[in-house]
Design brief:
190 residues, Immunoglobulin-like, single chain, 2 domains, 4 helices, alpha+beta
């Protein structure tokens, strides 16, 4: 009888464990869903879109310098990618499809800027000022992703195109660590 009772309780215990795990993931923001808005507006979901095989492969890296008055100045370095605002009078459905520049063959889109895991804004240009109020006293994370104008993130062979800087505003050497999934030429970063 005890063995049969344990067998019946195992599925319930597994379900409870999975429910607790999912609750923890949602509460910490580590959920597979990007946001509640994704559930309400699935056409605005941040899903991958592969760079076509025939297109030049985009590169992305970041440069960060201290601002003379306050905070930092971020420079977004791209190769084979046209960074800009979405075209006017296009529906989200039209923007979600592949978008490439007819002349250069480069992918089109914008960046998403994240500070310490929180999306701050879209980037339509290569430079942005980051006030010091955005940062903690210790190590912080600055990440930019490349996205098409339908907000799908660009990927190459399933790997998201992104660049991340780990910085310490209090340290003499600002950048502690850098990661670029598809970096631009090293000469552009210096």
């Amino acid at each position: 009888m005890e063995a049969r009772l344990n067998q019946k309780m195992k599925p319930a215990a597994i379900q409870l464990g999975l429910l607790l795990l999912m609750s923890c993931l949602v509460l910490t923001g580590s959920c597979w869903s990007v946001s509640a808005a994704t559930a309400l507006y699935p056409e605005h979901a941040h899903l991958p879109i592969e760079v076509p095989a025939r297109a030049p492969l985009p590169g992305l890296s970041l440069k960060l310098s201290r601002d003379a008055i306050d905070g930092f100045n971020l420079q977004v370095l791209t190769e084979n990618f046209t960074l800009g605002a979405p075209p006017v009078a296009k529906s989200l459905a039209e923007l979600t499809g592949l978008a490439g520049d007819a002349d250069s063959g480069f992918m089109l889109g914008h960046g998403h800027l994240y500070i310490n895991g929180q999306k701050l804004q879209r980037l339509y240009g290569t430079r942005v000022h980051l006030p010091s109020t955005l940062f903690f006293g210790g190590v912080n994370q600055v990440t930019v992703t490349l996205n098409n104008h339908g907000h799908r993130y660009w990927a190459i062979d399933g790997r998201q195109i992104l660049a991340t800087l780990f910085i310490n505003p209090k340290a003499e050497s600002l950048v502690v660590y850098r990661f670029d999934s598809f970096p631009v030429a090293a000469s552009k970063i210096k």
